Amino acid sequence: MDQNSYDAQLDALYAAITGRQNFSYRADQDPLYRAYAQRYIQNGRMAMRDTMGQAAALTGGYASSYAQALGQQQYDEYLRALSEALPEFYGMAWEQYQAQGQKLKDDYDLAYQRSQADYARQQDALEAQRQGEAAAYQRQQAGYQQLYALISATGYVPGDEELEAAGMSRARADALHRAWDEKHNPPVRTQTIIYRSGSGKSSGGSNSTVVKPSQQGSQPVKTSGSAGGVGRRADALK
Asked: Which residue ranges make up each domain of the chain?
């Protein structure tokens, strides 16, 4: 049961407890008393007839005021016994009223305890989830830092599962790898020298191009021109 259901149940029980009418008792509206009274009245009438019959037999079978008086007396005894039983029925009705009120309170307490227990379980579950998420985040951050350091130090190329576990995008990993590659494998830059072969006085002669690596000590990778000019170009490059 969710918290809203518990709240609705508690509200209904609280309304039933606080909205109860004050105790009142009417014997004519008490089914138990009415059944008891009907039986007593019936038995009283039977006792009255029997008494009157017995009295009439003593007088030769004729009714008399004496017989009627004895019968009425017997009937009144039953009514008196019925009236004496009325406080007992009042007490039973009061006890029933009290029991009903106590049951409502017990039901309310039980529903409240269940709601609190469920709420505590929900909070425990949420706290466990938060702790789990925090631990997973910390593990991911630690994995990210380790993978970052590994790529930056060695140029390591991680797989998709490693990237997902560390929370690192492929673009970020590629950028780190390019930075490592540029640092440890710089590109070779070349320098092109164009000069004119032949003597300085002559406007004739051929052009020669030398592509020379910028790093000191490297050999030319391309030369062109006449054989005579090769020596001069070589001397010029010294």
From this structure: 3-133, 188-237
